[in-house]
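Pasting two entries for a bug report.
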Amino acid sequence: MILTPFEWTIARRYMLPGRGEAFIALVAGISLAAVMLGVAALVIVMSVMNGFRAELLDKIVGLNGHAIIQAYGGRLENWQDVLRQVEATPGVVHASPLIEQPLLTTFNGRVEAILVRGETAQDITELAPKLRSGSLRELQPGSGNVAIGARLAENLGAQVGDSITIINPAGRSTPFGTVPRQISYRVAAVFEIGIYDYDNSFVVMPIPDAQTLMLSGDAIGMIEVRTSDADRAMEMLAPLARKLQGQAVVTDWKTINASLFEALAVERVAMFVVLSIIVLVAVFNILSSLIMLVRAKTRDIAILRTMGATRRSLLKIFVTTGFLIGALGTLAGLGLGFVFLYFRQPIVHLAEMITGQNLWDPKIRFLTELPARSDPVEIVSICVMALVFSFLATLYPALKAASTDPVQVLRYE
């Protein structure tokens, strides 16, 4: 398919039609723009979908680990022995006890549902990169200090230094019934994980304080596990799950968030198929513009044939003409897509200002900002698909041009 100087000259001439062929040039320009928009749409949407999944995975797994080991009944009494077994399991890089319980909190008369998390000192320090205000060093056992999510702080109107009251409905039994347990805690830190549900409900405190609040003694709720490979977490923990059968259940992050990530996978495939149709429609524009070009250049093609141009040369000329339109559109689409992704957040804010609508509501989207992460393999696949479609669209017009009979065309000239 290497073009000779003669073939390249003709192909370049046909890519830039003359004044009398402005309509053909317009159709070719529309074809290039259509390919550009189709490729840009694919790059943008697939990168956003990948970013959405990656951000959710990083934040969910980063906070909850790759798997959890939870006792039947929600109370793990002999958790020290279980913890040693977990840490001895091949593939486990970190394991720590965890208490997690939905409760209520009140501040200045406002009541909110919360999720209290009792964590070890090491796990609490991992919140440092997500800290908005305050200090995590103050979360010491027995200090009465807690860290709360940013959205929860906004809903309560609480700031660092304020005292909130946490209510445990399962309080102590008295002759007059069960009295809810109410303990006041000082807000020592405010963090923002980036997932709305977490920032809207999490209250983090040291494990001893959580055990006191829950009246659970030395028991914990679960053990959080991190492995060397998140995708193979359940496979690595399978021997441990068999050992703990009847005592505790092992659940990995895929099972816990199965419905969410399955929905994302289905939506990702559906969006790719739908947006690929845009590229296909753009390719049909290339086909139509080449057909018109061949019809307009029938006499020129016949003259070239009489001057010695071979069918192969004509085939290469028209394939190159159409393919370059697709290639230029693909490159322009890549550029447009990456520019959009780079300025995606300002573009979202601009669209919100123009429409007056909240286009990225964290309550619905889980994440506070529009994420994006480009997959090089996927980008290459999109480009190859657009180029293959463009090449296939050139074959029919090119074959028609190559099969032109100069005798029939020039008979009455």
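Entry 2 (this is the one that rendered wrong in the viewer):
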Amino acid sequence: MFLDQIGMGGEWWSWILWIAFMVVFFMFYPRLMISQIMWKLERSVRELETLSSRARKIVKKEISKKPDKVVNDSIDRFFEFFAISPIGLDPYGIVKKMDHIIRNQKDRFDYFVDQVAPKMDAEKKESVKMGLAGGMGLYELMKIVRHYVEIIKKTKNIQIAMILQMQLPFVEKMARAIYKGTETMVKGKPIGDALGPYTATKLFGNKKVGKIEEGIAMVNVKIDGKNCFVIKASGPGGRLGFPGKAVERIANKNKIARIITVDAAAKLEGEKTGSVAEGVGVAMGGPGVERSYIEAVVVKKNIPMDSVIVKMSPEEAIEPMKKSIKDAYPTVRESISRSLKRVKKNEKVIIVGVGNSSGVGDSEKEVKEMEKWVDNRHKKQKNKKKKGRFRRKK
């Protein structure tokens, strides 16, 4: 009678089973859930380990076709290399401290590559250094993900597991991009971030290239009737150089009317890769040391600053350069011309092609070879997509 009154009459044993099932469900569901998440996380860690291992093999193969035990051990040991940021409790002088650490890090990379590949030519060495940096970045990413997976295993903490699971699609996407970038840079081919140096080399024309700072190429050329100092990281080896110091040196020796920076910039989802935007300020990423040097000199001398950016995703910036990025040059050139209209005839301007010079040389011939490589790669990818669609239809 009681069961009938509360609506649980009839097969009362089925209700007991249902209640028992719900109790068991609430007791064991979190464990089942964390087991499912752990399976996905462990699979992702294995994939990251595989990518990291492949990236390391690519670097080793570029250094030596048949690396011996000494070379293998040296590269494996160097993958654990790290740089500690300077203390920032007292911000005064932090830029010089960071500059010192960055230059120390560069010297260490130079020394290591000279030791493992002494007979390699200079440009190839620079490409190997960039490949090493990419492989080390992927290795570090893999270690961080593996670290949190091991913590989840020990603590059985479902909250940490869910947070990591939500981040995994972005982590995996970035890992694949770093892998492609490592393979591209170590072979001395252009990446998306090479847009700035590519623009600078196009502006060089057939003029004789000089050096203004370590790793920085410069040409003094007339553009739209204005006397322009065009600078970029020397190529075609992968370099970033020290453009801030170069700008500082030029500005201290010449009366500069305007500075224009050209760089790749992260786009928002929905924006078109290769679209161009204009603004003011220093278009330059990285730790901020070189940017700080430029900002200091423009403030001191009251120099106006323009920036031109070509939009791409963070992944596209480190992956092989896309045709849509290369084809943005005419629009970039128009933006530079609009900026130069604000400068009087024969006044001096600095144009900085910011970015990684991987695959982008300092001459017309080298830049044409780079453009050909980008176009051929685009055609191959397009043909692969067509073949894939055809197979799916069949």
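Dev reply: Rendering is fixed now. As a check, the viewer should reflect this: The chain is about 60% helix and 15% strand.
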